[in-house]
């Protein structure tokens, strides 16, 4: 890949995608060459990012990018269109960084097959914040030594997808260590089984959607006479996610197929 990485951002005016687009536009080793936004279609990327040397205009769909060459596509749109965008970008010959939540294990299996066929990398990160990367690593360490745990997913009242991509990724990764033990299996409880949450990759997951939250995740480990809480909470701003996303853009070319987790390309983790 050329030293100047040509980047297309899906969700270029979104809460996270907009901040990332500005970060890409101002990065010395990247150029923002394309962006997707239905609401801002036709507007110049220079005006959207505040970087006067950024070329091009926002497109309403990934198909409208046409012959625009880009090396890395960053998916930051909506769950209902995310898989389609990713598959189109792979067919275009680009590597893909995934920040959108809501993709299932079946979705990732299909994406992995397409990426390997195209000889491209897909770096799927439920969250680009370094504190989340550390939470995932610490939780995996704890799961190797403790048998019981559950996950609580916190988000704002209007967040439609449940659980968040961060929690989906965490449950998946813990499931790669082992499945959480249950003193009473869900199918044997007395009362509404839904109160025990959803089982994901062998872990019980509980989604909280209330005003006052932005994004948060807590994994609780229990053992005889002791408990371990590992918790991440995000503020209202999206800047903490930019540096991790830029790192993912720089590193995705080094992988093939789907790789889950930013830590997989970070030195020392």
TrEMBL record:
Pathway(s) per entry: Amino-acid biosynthesis; L-lysine biosynthesis via DAP pathway; (S)-tetrahydrodipicolinate from L-aspartate: step 4/4
CDD domains: DHDPR_N
Keyword NAD: yes
SUPFAM superfamilies linked: Glyceraldehyde-3-phosphate dehydrogenase-like, C-terminal domain, NAD(P)-binding Rossmann-fold domains
Catalytic reactions of this protein: (S)-2,3,4,5-tetrahydrodipicolinate + NADP(+) + H2O = (2S,4S)-4-hydroxy-2,3,4,5-tetrahydrodipicolinate + NADPH + H(+); (S)-2,3,4,5-tetrahydrodipicolinate + NAD(+) + H2O = (2S,4S)-4-hydroxy-2,3,4,5-tetrahydrodipicolinate + NADH + H(+)
CC terms in the record's Gene Ontology section: cytosol
UniProt keyword Phosphoprotein, yes or no: no
GO biological processes: diaminopimelate biosynthetic process; lysine biosynthetic process via diaminopimelate
GO MF term set: 4-hydroxy-tetrahydrodipicolinate reductase
Top EC class of this enzyme: oxidoreductase
Pfam family, one: DapB_N
Keywords: Amino-acid biosynthesis, Diaminopimelate biosynthesis, Lysine biosynthesis, NAD, NADP, Oxidoreductase
Domain Dihydrodipicolinate reductase N-terminal: 5-128
EC numbers, comma separated: 1.17.1.8
Residue stretches making up the Dihydrodipicolinate reductase C-terminal domain: 132-265
Family the UniProt entry places it in: Belongs to the DapB family.
PANTHER family: 4-HYDROXY-TETRAHYDRODIPICOLINATE REDUCTASE 1, CHLOROPLASTIC-RELATED, DIHYDRODIPICOLINATE REDUCTASE
Record protein name field: 4-hydroxy-tetrahydrodipicolinate reductase
Lineage of source species: Bacteria, Pseudomonadati, Pseudomonadota, Betaproteobacteria, Burkholderiales
Name of the gene this protein is made from: dapB
